[in-house]
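Morning - NAP inputs below, output right after.
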Amino acid sequence: MDLGIAGRSALVCASSKGLGRACAESLAREGAAVTMVARGREVLEDAAEAIRRATAARVTTVVADITTAAGRATVLEACGAPDILVTNAGGPKPGDFREWEREDWIAALDANMLAPIALMKATIDAMIARRFGRIVNITSAAVKAPIDILGLSNGARSGLTGFVAGLARGVVAHNVTINNLLPGPFETDRLRDTARQWSRQTGKSEDTVLAERRAANPAGRFGTPAEFGDACVYLCSAQAGFITGQNLLLDGGNYPGTF
Ligand code: NAP
């Protein structure tokens, strides 16, 4: 199936590793010109080069912290007005809410709520003018089923989800869609970091924690970043113009509800 986005420009935030990188690669494979962003230059350049070699797409890199206004300004200057925006940033630290101060909450809100909103604000009017825009926010399964040690994530991402629910209905008539992808457990550095924290809290080894999580998932495994990237690219496709305001859970069936 031709997804109809060859030649479109895509900004993929926090994309040198993990889920962001997978989204960048899937978009590049469909012929989009991709701008990739991360704070660490070396890993970002390596990832971009690997994607260029695999897809022959035009891939631009920007070293920036997407959670700051200055970082976003640098990114937007480099990529102009993208047709496709994938928002993403590192997840907040796990822990016990009794340990978190106001600064921890502000950092989580900046990364996982306010940065995506600022990026949408900066890019959406040009999408409306062109009558094509696809926005995908990488959030978390924790929005539907909270994870106790990820309270900062549960809170900040729920704020973004509420905001998007309202905005999405206001722009879809212009062929601009906004959807959220909710990852369950995907095999990335972030998942391993969370397992390390859980291992410290429970006294179980990291391998045991990972094995138990795999076994507890109905799929009996973690998701692969490539599966995530390919779901993202469909939501960014020309064909997906009637899908908006949705929260799509990718979790191997882990969420137990009927809806
Ligand atoms: P990951 O493998 O740790 O990759 C994170 C990527 O984001 C890296 O490229 C990192 O590069 C970049 N990044 C982090 N902070 C950034 C910032 N402030 N500005 C620019 N780039 C930044 O993480 P992941 O597993 O792909 O997770 C992506 C998102 O999905 C996170 O918010 C995570 O909490 C959420 N999530 C993941 C899972 C999972 O199972 N993997 C489940 C639920 C939710 P630099 O460090 O060089 O900047």
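Note: The longest strand covers residues 176-183.

O.
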